């Protein structure tokens, strides 16, 4: 292309067309050709234009007025705009220097497109993760911004022939309408042409019986050719594009046999028309294209249902917020302009636009958008409120703590996108099977042609065409994505977030579920129930101050009620946390007459007994103990209550022949008390994280197991479990590593989760089984010559529609 780039008049800059400096300026090399430029700026821009494959900018620009020539192509300007950090805050998240974004893709047709995009973008320096979902036409990308700009990622995708832009619900709906018009117009052309060609085909059929005049027959062939040509050149375009891209990706998809069949049938029929000899099947070309487009159109509608399911979360957020200025007056500002620390007001019935801290004394909010639970939740002053919640009672004031992509709602949407981009093992197997099936179909079609050439040369081509059409694995390619997307949509509506789609396949086989006690079987809302002081050397208030200072450094659920024991303060240093045991530090007692220090421990009974092996608690249910190397100072009983629905859920699991096992670091008597209330027969108490891991690993020898924990101190055992489940504590949502997040904070949500996964796996298996039965069953029938091309087209389209309709049952 560079060889034909127009040269500016001598003495002018190749890029900006301004006069060159007296020393000749600089030069830029494009495809081994040197061009003179006036400065470093023009040199850099010209190199960028060449790197981004935008050399048409130089070919087609109007150089008649150098002062009006744009210095940067419009395409490059648009993509470069996305590199602005302030703009990116509206659609990217950043954690530990890694930014993540969800992009909408235009031009995708199948999983081969997804594979091609993934492989191409992965090669870019700085990209950490790329996951494409062909069903929702979205891609999740994580990258290091200091190594790679967003515009470079967008351009890399554009180089493959796809258009990628940050996902926004409004633009997504516009893209869907555009895509729907794309199919409807092609479907209309194919439908009208099919009706006309079929009428001519019926006339030709009866003409064979009644000795149709050869000239009239030839005329009808030419009319059929004329009607079928727009179908082939216009209506069938989506299949050609999909076939080319799949071949480019090295993964032939179902568009390849479709394209071969269409071009072959049309070519053979056109040849017969030109030489006025043989048979024509223009009606098969038109009908085949029409039925395929009908299937693709229904597939598009199913995709849109999946896309809108996740987009609805974004659309329900308000665009405008009421922000207080320095004189407490309200001004309307775009939500995108809110900053951390702003004070906003939300009227009754309005949606909260950002995460924040409640400044009003009390409020009632509905968090059903986030949790799937529609009951009113009472919030007190200083409690966190979340974007997407609806204020139900009175005007409230909120101090903004997180905006846009940093909110909990944004974390939920990111988890949804992540789940949609990950495929369960069975889905990956189906995709590979469909890809291999295409290659085998082409081989069998070639063998069919050779065999029928010997048996009946006149029928060889049409039998081969029927084989290509009837056995196209469209249903097999749709079987898994449609079922997985439907399952994730159903789970999201129930307040259940899925991070790992493999769970859909694994959970129904789980027969053992390990549960943590604190924060899982119980609410995690602790309060101090009893205190006992052993020491007469130190005042109770001094011990309380000591415990409070150390517990303020802890995130353990038991620490919360011990963080507000007294107004006094204690001086501690060298604080060290022992996982699963407690905290060790150096204490500087205020009561000491000298500057002496004392080693101190606050934690479990086992931790204290390392220093005092014979110590026996005064409080039977105490969980937190305080000791020095010479004496035990105090013990605390922090009470918790069971979740309201825990007992019913545990009984339901046990009735389903699932073994429920309690794993807890609490003392045996505390664990036994809770287990007795719930009817749990298998209990492992006094467990360190390593002990929990050992128990779970041993159980995995008998099959897959699930683990339910609060995610704070159960990291190793959650990572080891085949299915890890946690509850949706807002503070931990963004960093949880569990496979499943139960946003409703109800133990009974586990039952609904299990029911949905069982149904999803059943539908997934039904889809794949049906697709395999159809393709394997129709193959010998088609090879034997019992299926005509248009009957093959109807059968193949019907099999795809059956798969789609079966998957749509998950949306009910």
Automatic annotation (TrEMBL):
<comment type="similarity">
    <text>Belongs to the cation transport ATPase (P-type) (TC 3.A.3) family. Type IB subfamily.</text>
</comment>
<keyword id="KW-0812">Transmembrane</keyword>
<dbReference type="InterPro" id="IPR027256">
    <property type="entry name" value="P-typ_ATPase_IB"/>
</dbReference>
<dbReference type="Pfam" id="PF00403">
    <property type="entry name" value="HMA"/>
</dbReference>
<dbReference type="InterPro" id="IPR059000">
    <property type="entry name" value="ATPase_P-type_domA"/>
</dbReference>
<keyword id="KW-0547">Nucleotide-binding</keyword>
<feature type="transmembrane region" description="Helical">
    <location>
        <begin position="793"/>
        <end position="811"/>
    </location>
</feature>
<protein>
    <submittedName>
        <fullName>Heavy metal translocating P-type ATPase</fullName>
    </submittedName>
</protein>
<dbReference type="Pfam" id="PF00122">
    <property type="entry name" value="E1-E2_ATPase"/>
</dbReference>
<feature type="transmembrane region" description="Helical">
    <location>
        <begin position="461"/>
        <end position="484"/>
    </location>
</feature>
<dbReference type="GO" id="GO:0005524">
    <property type="term" value="F:ATP binding"/>
</dbReference>
<feature type="transmembrane region" description="Helical">
    <location>
        <begin position="280"/>
        <end position="298"/>
    </location>
</feature>
<keyword id="KW-1278">Translocase</keyword>
<keyword id="KW-1133">Transmembrane helix</keyword>
<keyword id="KW-0479">Metal-binding</keyword>
<keyword id="KW-0460">Magnesium</keyword>
<keyword id="KW-0597">Phosphoprotein</keyword>
<dbReference type="GO" id="GO:0055070">
    <property type="term" value="P:copper ion homeostasis"/>
</dbReference>
<dbReference type="InterPro" id="IPR036163">
    <property type="entry name" value="HMA_dom_sf"/>
</dbReference>
<keyword id="KW-0813">Transport</keyword>
<dbReference type="InterPro" id="IPR036412">
    <property type="entry name" value="HAD-like_sf"/>
</dbReference>
<dbReference type="InterPro" id="IPR021993">
    <property type="entry name" value="ATPase-cat-bd"/>
</dbReference>
<feature type="transmembrane region" description="Helical">
    <location>
        <begin position="187"/>
        <end position="207"/>
    </location>
</feature>
<dbReference type="InterPro" id="IPR008250">
    <property type="entry name" value="ATPase_P-typ_transduc_dom_A_sf"/>
</dbReference>
<dbReference type="Pfam" id="PF12156">
    <property type="entry name" value="ATPase-cat_bd"/>
</dbReference>
<feature type="transmembrane region" description="Helical">
    <location>
        <begin position="219"/>
        <end position="244"/>
    </location>
</feature>
<keyword id="KW-0406">Ion transport</keyword>
<dbReference type="InterPro" id="IPR001757">
    <property type="entry name" value="P_typ_ATPase"/>
</dbReference>
<feature type="transmembrane region" description="Helical">
    <location>
        <begin position="437"/>
        <end position="455"/>
    </location>
</feature>
<dbReference type="GO" id="GO:0043682">
    <property type="term" value="F:P-type divalent copper transporter activity"/>
</dbReference>
<dbReference type="InterPro" id="IPR023214">
    <property type="entry name" value="HAD_sf"/>
</dbReference>
<keyword id="KW-1003">Cell membrane</keyword>
<dbReference type="InterPro" id="IPR023299">
    <property type="entry name" value="ATPase_P-typ_cyto_dom_N"/>
</dbReference>
<feature type="domain" description="HMA">
    <location>
        <begin position="99"/>
        <end position="165"/>
    </location>
</feature>
<dbReference type="InterPro" id="IPR023298">
    <property type="entry name" value="ATPase_P-typ_TM_dom_sf"/>
</dbReference>
<dbReference type="GO" id="GO:0005507">
    <property type="term" value="F:copper ion binding"/>
</dbReference>
<dbReference type="InterPro" id="IPR006121">
    <property type="entry name" value="HMA_dom"/>
</dbReference>
<dbReference type="Pfam" id="PF00702">
    <property type="entry name" value="Hydrolase"/>
</dbReference>
<keyword id="KW-0067">ATP-binding</keyword>
<feature type="transmembrane region" description="Helical">
    <location>
        <begin position="768"/>
        <end position="787"/>
    </location>
</feature>
<dbReference type="InterPro" id="IPR018303">
    <property type="entry name" value="ATPase_P-typ_P_site"/>
</dbReference>
<feature type="transmembrane region" description="Helical">
    <location>
        <begin position="256"/>
        <end position="274"/>
    </location>
</feature>
């Amino acid at each position: 292309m560079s060889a034909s780039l127009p040269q500016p008049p001598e003495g002018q800059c190749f890029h900006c067309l301004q006069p060159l400096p007296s020393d000749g300026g600089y030069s830029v090399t494009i495809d081994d050709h040197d061009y003179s430029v006036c400065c470093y700026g023009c040199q850099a821009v010209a190199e960028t234009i060449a790197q981004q494959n935008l050399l048409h900018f130089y070919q087609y620009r109007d150089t008649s007025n150098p002062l009006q020539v744009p210095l940067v192509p419009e395409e490059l300007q648009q993509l470069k705009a996305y590199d602005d950090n302030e703009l990116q805050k509206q659609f990217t998240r950043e954690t530990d220097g890694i930014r993540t974004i969800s992009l909408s893709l235009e031009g995708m047709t199948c999983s081969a497109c997804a594979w091609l995009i993934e492989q191409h973008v992965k090669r870019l320096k700085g990209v950490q993760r790329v996951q494409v979902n062909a069903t929702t036409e979205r891609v999740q990308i994580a990258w290091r911004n200091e190594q790679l700009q967003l515009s470079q990622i967008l351009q890399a995708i554009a180089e493959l022939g796809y258009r990628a832009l940050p996902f926004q619900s409004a633009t997504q709906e516009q893209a869907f309408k555009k895509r729907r018009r794309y199919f409807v117009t092609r479907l209309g052309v194919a439908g009208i042409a099919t009706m006309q060609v079929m009428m001519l085909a019926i006339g030709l059929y009866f003409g064979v019986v009644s000795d149709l005049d050869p000239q009239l027959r030839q005329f009808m062939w030419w009319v059929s050719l004329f009607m079928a040509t727009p179908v082939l050149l216009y209506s069938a375009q989506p299949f050609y594009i999909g076939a080319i891209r799949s071949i480019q990706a090295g993964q032939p998809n179902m568009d390849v046999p479709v394209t071969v069949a269409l071009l072959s049938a049309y070519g053979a029929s056109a040849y017969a028309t030109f030489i006025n000899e043989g048979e024509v099947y223009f009606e098969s070309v038109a009908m085949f294209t029409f039925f395929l487009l009908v299937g693709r159109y229904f597939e598009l509608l199913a995709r849109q249902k999946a896309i809108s399911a996740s987009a609805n979360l974004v659309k329900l957020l308000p665009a405008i917020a009421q922000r207080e200025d320095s004189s407490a007056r309200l001004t309307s500002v775009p939500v995108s302009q809110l900053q951390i620390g702003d004070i906003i007001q939300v009227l009754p019935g309005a949606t909260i636009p950002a995460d924040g801290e409640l400044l009003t004394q009390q409020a009632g909010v509905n968090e059903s958008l986030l949790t799937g639970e529609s009951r009113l939740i009472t919030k007190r002053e200083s409690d966190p409120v979340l974007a997407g919640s609806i204020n139900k009672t009175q005007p409230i004031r909120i101090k903004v703590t997180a905006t846009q992509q940093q909110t909990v709602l944004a974390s939920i949407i990111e988890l949804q996108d992540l789940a949609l981009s990950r495929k369960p093992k069975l889905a990956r197997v189906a995709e590979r099977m469909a890809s291999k099936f295409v290659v085998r179909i082409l081989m069998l079609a070639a063998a069919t042609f050779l065999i029928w050439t010997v048996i009946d040369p006149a029928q060889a081509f049409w039998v081969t065409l029927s084989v290509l059409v009837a056995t196209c694995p469209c249903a097999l390619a749709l079987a898994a994505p449609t079922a997985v997307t439907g399952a994730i949509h159903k789970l999201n509506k129930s307040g259940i977030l899925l991070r790992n789609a493999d769970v859909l396949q694994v959970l129904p086989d789980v027969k053992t579920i390990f549960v943590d006690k604190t924060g899982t079987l119980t609410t995690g809302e602790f309060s101090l129930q009893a205190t006992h002081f052993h020491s007469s050397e130190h005042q109770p208030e001094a011990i309380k101050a000591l415990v409070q200072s150390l517990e303020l450094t802890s995130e353990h659920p038991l620490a919360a009620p011990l963080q507000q024991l007294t107004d006094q303060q204690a001086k501690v240093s060298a604080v060290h946390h022992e996982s699963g045991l407690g905290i060790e530090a150096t204490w500087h007692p205020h009561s000491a007459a000298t500057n002496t220090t004392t080693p101190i421990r606050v934690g479990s009974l086992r931790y204290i007994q390392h220093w005092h092996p014979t110590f026996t608690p005064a409080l039977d249910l105490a969980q937190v103990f305080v000791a020095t190397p010479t004496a035990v100072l105090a013990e605390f009983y922090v009470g918790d209550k069971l979740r309201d629905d825990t007992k019913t859920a545990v009984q339901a699991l046990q009735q389903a022949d699932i073994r429920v096992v309690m794993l807890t670091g609490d003392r045996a008597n505390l664990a036994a008390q809770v287990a007795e209330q719930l009817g749990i027969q298998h209990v492992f108490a006094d467990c360190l994280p390593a002990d929990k891991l050992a128990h779970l690993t041993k159980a995995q020898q008998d099959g897959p197991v699930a683990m339910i924990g609060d995610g704070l101190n159960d990291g190793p055992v959650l990572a080891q479990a085949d299915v890890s489940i946690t509850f949706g504590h807002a503070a931990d949502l963004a960093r949880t590593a569990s496979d499943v997040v139960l946003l409703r904070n109800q133990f009974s949500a586990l039952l609904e989760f299990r029911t949905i996964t069982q149904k999803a796996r059943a539908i997934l298996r039904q889809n794949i089984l049906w697709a395999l039965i159809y393709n394997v069953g129709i193959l010998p029938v088609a090879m034997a010559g019992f299926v005509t091309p248009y009957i093959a087209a109807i059968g193949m389209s019907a099999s795809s529609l059956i798969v789609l309709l079966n998957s749509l049952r998950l949306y009910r």
